[in-house]
Design a protein that fits this description.
The protein has about 325 residues and is of the alpha/beta class. About 35% of the residues lie in helices and about 20% in strands. The chain has helices at about 20-35, 50-55, 85-90, 100-115, 130-135, 175-185, 200-215, 230-240, 275-285, 315-325, and strands spanning about 5-10, 40, 60, 75, 95-100, 120-125, 145, 165, 220, 245-250, 265-270, 290-295. The radius of gyration is 21 Å and the shape is flat. It binds iron/sulfur cluster (SF4). Iron/sulfur cluster binds near residues 19, 169 and 202.
């Protein structure tokens, strides 16, 4: 039975971004074109459901290039890799497909350019995140990681007149600006990246959650725990005034107790989350009387990226030739 006053605020945009869409399709296309197995270094995108689905189709996810048998095809994930990983793959005679998101590649190129100009690069990001490891690997001697405002006091540079900040693509916009402000206090000549490093998808999903946060007693974010942009959405929801916010991989992880006294539920999903998981949560909520769904629209998204160019080649033949060398 439907209970009065219960509603869902559904964020738009939510879910898959152009980089994730491209990476997932790249694995599927590679499996279709070359057959299983296709090795993928690290999770292609940070989502359990996506990874399990691709595993069933024949993708094998590995942590290290050394785990991939010589002469195989390996794909690099959307988060990007350091140049040393390309070198390791060449040494193992692997045919490679690079599914790094073009917006991550943009940050890599910025890092290389500023390093060539001998800048000290302050990379704002989360210690240990794959994207940060990949970007840092482009210019390890020039990059210092700054993991939030608390790190700023300990940052040292060689020349205060040649310092630039860059960032991970999936950070909280507000928290990043706090870190930048603290860095600017310390290094007044700090220069900013030529364009936003935090990507359009991360920003749009945060704007939508901000718009709904104050009206929501509870915000449910669909996403995996290791998905940086999904975790940020929980923080942004709480910062915007949501009564509570939780990250779930799917409807089966929602705790009934979260709904106590709740009449408005905000719902969104991270950039690596397929819509089917959001539909599952909507269904779960509908069964509990939350049938009215209002869209909270922050932006239109129409960006798409072309598939990795390597998919146009006969990589099985290349891998076989490499293995014979
Ligand atoms: S979140 Fe942004 S940077 Fe990451 S894959 Fe998506 S579009 Fe690319």
């Amino acid at each position: 039975m439907r209970r009065a006053g219960k509603r869902v605020l559904l964020a738009a945009p939510r879910g898959y971004c152009a980089g994730v869409d491209r990476a997932v399709i790249a694995v599927e296309k590679a499996l279709e074109q070359y057959g299983a197995p296709i090795y993928v270094r690290h999770e292609i995108v940070h989502n359990k459901y996506v990874v399990r689905t691709l595993e069933k189709k024949g993708a094998i996810f590995v942590d290290k290039t050394a785990e991939v048998p010589e002469g195989s095809i390996v794909m690099f994930s959307a988060h990007g890799v350091a140049p040393v990983v390309h070198e390791e793959a060449a040494e193992r005679r692997l045919a490679t497909i690079d599914a790094t998101c073009p917006l991550v590649t943009k940050v890599h190129k910025e890092a290389v350019r500023f390093a060539n100009e001998d800048y000290d690069i302050l990379l704002i990001g989360h210690d240990g995140h794959e994207e940060v490891i990949g970007t840092s690997g482009e210019a390890p001697d020039h990059i210092t990681l700054v993991d939030g405002p608390g790190d700023v006091a300990g940052v040292e540079v060689r020349d205060e007149s040649k310092v630039v900040w860059l960032s991970q693509t999936t950070l909280s916009v507000d928290e990043t600006m706090e870190t930048v402000d603290a860095l600017k206090q310390k290094f007044p000549q700090l220069i900013s990246p030529p364009s936003d490093d935090i990507c359009y998808a991360t920003q749009n999903r945060q704007i939508a959650v901000k718009q709904m946060g104050a009206d929501a007693d509870l915000v449910i974010v669909v996403g995996s725990k290791n998905s940086s942009n999904s975790v940020r959405l929980v923080e942004v929801a709480l910062g915007a005034g949501a009564g509570a916010s939780h990250l779930v991989d799917g409807a089966d992880e929602i705790d009934e107790a979260w709904l106590e006294g709740v009449s408005t539920v905000g719902l969104t999903s991270g950039a690596s989350v397929p819509e089917v998981l959001v539909e599952g949560v909507l269904e779960w909520l509908s069964q509990r009387g939350f049938e009215d769904v209002e869209i909270v629209k922050a932006a239109e998204e129409s960006i798409t990226f072309s598939l990795p160019k390597e998919l146009r080649r006969d990589l099985r033949a290349e891998a076989a030739a490499l293995a014979e060398k």
